[in-house]
Amino acid sequence: MKKRVVAVLLSGLVAGPVMADDFKSQAYVGLNYLAGQYEEDQISEDFDADVLFAQLGVQLNPYLAGELRAGTGLSDDSATVSGVDLGLEINSLFGAYLKAGLPTETILYPYVVAGVTRIDAEATASFGGLSASESDSDSSFSYGVGLNIELTDQFVLNAEAMQYYDKDDAELAGISVGGQFRF
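Above: the chain's sequence. Below: its structure in token form.
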């Protein structure tokens, strides 16, 4: 039994490089829409944080890709908490990520993604004719899971669930959908 397990493991190690020999790295650009939610522990309401972001990446081998993202908020959201009107707007999102995927011999390519994201946001508060606003930028470790659907050799649909920011009792997470063009 042990010999069979060792033989299967060794055949997997040999088959991986053979598959990699047929692979050519590909660069890609993409555009995604993020339906995000911003949550803060001290605030009972969540804020919608929709972002449109561009991707620039390279598939290094069948299992690993590197990617940069840059995005901008599409709208602001507001809520009233204890009589105070609060607002939130994501001004920009920048990130660098590694994606590790599993080729499936089909059009589906599931992956995990991890990296660092920098968020620039503006918060506003008003009560009884007084108002204040504050802009802040901060970075956080980011992680998620996704699925690429290869429609052609050059065009891929993409869906992803991602935790972009999780620090100091605040979170930005969401689901994005979009497409990528490979060249």
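Residues 5-20 have pLDDT under 50 and may be disordered.
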